[in-house]
Amino acid sequence: SLVNVDCHVACRLPSTYGGTHQLHLYTNNVDKEEHMAIVFGPFYSKSLNTFRNDDDENKRRMRGAQSHTSTTPTFAEPPLVRIHSCCFTGETLGSSRCDCAEQLQVAMKKMSVENGIIVYLQQEGRGIGLLDKLYAYNLIDMGHDTLSANIALGHPPDARTYHVAAAILKDFGIEKVRLLTNNPNKIQQLQVDGIDIVERVSMVPESWNSKTHALEDRDEYLVTKVQRMGHVLDIP
Length: 236
Known about the structure:
By secondary structure, the chain is an alpha/beta fold. 36% of the residues lie in helices and 20% in strands. The protein has ten helices and seven strands. The protein has helices at 46-49, 57-63, 88-92, 100-111, 124-127, 129-141, 146-152, 163-171, 184-192, 216-229, and strands at 5-14, 20-28, 35-40, 80-85, 116-121, 176-180, 196-201. It has a seven-stranded mixed beta sheet with strand order 1-2-3-5-4-6-7, with helices on both faces. Helix 6 (129-141) crosses helix 7 (146-152). The longest helix is centred in the C-terminal third of the chain and has 14 residues, at 216-229.
């Protein structure tokens, strides 16, 4: 079915990673989640800025809409985009079982010096939810890897979808992107939904670029994604 997204509000957020971005909150007709777009640069949401029947100046300012209808300008090259799935354990609690927090931080740092958008999806645990993600952690400690743990719980290795992400990009008038990812499946799904990936920009863990030893739990997770899930990353 056709995916419809609606941006309800956008607000200014100064960032410790540099610069200021606009945080947009979306709902959609596919799930009940509140997905977000972290926007660096002059990108304008059509659904946010469309004039509504009960609009007045205060209502538009309160939801962060422009005073006039604005459209995203044409850039010399497609913008940098990261489609990022939320990770409570990594991003909030600082878990070293994954590199999710680092990937989000790297994307924000890159986009603080060039235009870009991070579409932040509520797809915890590669789409299986926090409860089953914690079960999966215990299965990993019992000898599974991140792929077989998901399967043991009755899930596919990666249950995420990107239909909503593609619709959010199109709401900003973006259909060609340079994508920050190591995941070929993400590229394929976005292409099916009409997003042209003109360049894949690798995300190499900082620990793999340094002489210091990477954390063991994170290493095992990353190696499994490369060797068993097709992610494109050179193992040191």
